[in-house]
Design goal:
Length: about 80
Amino acid sequence: MFTASLIPEAYYWARSAKHFDGKLTVVQVSTVFGEDPIYWTLALLGTDQHAMPCDFEIIGPLVLPDENPMRHAAE
C-alpha cells in the first residue's frame, strides 16, 4: 500500500522487519511532522516513536468494533 493511499490518523495492521521483531502490530498514520503526505510517519503504538511508512508492510486498515458490541450480564 502506498503512502498516498493511507488516511491521516487512521489505524492499520502492519508488519516490519525493523520493528517489533516482524510481528503483526497496529500503527497509526501521523501528521505530526506535516500535513503533506511526504511528511507522514507511522506512530508506533505503545511507544513514543515514529517510523517511516516505507519501513512497514501495510496489511490493511484496522476495523474497529461497533460501539458496545457485547451486552452486559446485568442487562
